[in-house]
Amino acid sequence: MKTLKIGIADYDRMKARTMAIAQGEYKPARGEPTVWFTSIESFAKVLSQRNRELLETIAHEQPHSLTELAGLSGQSKSNLSRTLKTMSKYGLVELSEGERGAVVPRVPYDQVSLDVSLTSNTQRVA
After folding, report:
1. Long-range residue pairs from 74-83, CB within 8 A, at least 24 positions apart, any chain
2. Are 65 and 102 in contact (CB under 8 A)?
3. Domain total of the chain
């Protein structure tokens, strides 16, 4: 089973963390999140029930194009394109080029794990 570790942090914390990594001041520990959202709400929006169903359809049916996925999911191709681009930005979907330039979606993970700090004292990077 392959799990994507996701973290929640506000923009300033993510920026500080990224800068610290880039400057060699901080090295992420093994098992730390590799994908970050700025809020639980934004995470919930990207992984809505409809989008999780879409991921399940992609994983099980392995469509060879967005046109095929549109037929399987009942969603319009343009809506799928926007949704999948957003999901690919967070590593939830991989989009590759198939036959005749078709966009082929794949789901690289079986599940996600959410890492959320409940207090500011638990921040890993100042």
Report:
1. 80/54, 83/51, 83/54
2. yes
3. 1
CA 64 – CA 66 distance, rounded (Å): 7
Whether pTM > 0.85 for this model: the answer is no
Closest by alpha carbon to 103, among 73, 76, 68? Answer: 68
Strands of 35-37's sheet, edge to edge?
Answer: 35-37, 3-8, 111-116
Strands (E), the chain: 3-8, 35-37, 94-97, 103-106, 111-116
Q: What are phi and psi of 88, to 5 degrees?
A: -70, -30
Domain of 10 in residue numbering reads as: 3-122
**pLDDT tens track for 74-107:** 999 999 999 999 999 999 999 999 888 889 999 9
- The whole-angstrom separation of Cα 122 and Cα 117 is 6
The domain that holds 72 is classified in CATH as 1.10.10.10
Q: What is the mean pLDDT of residues 53-75?
A: 95
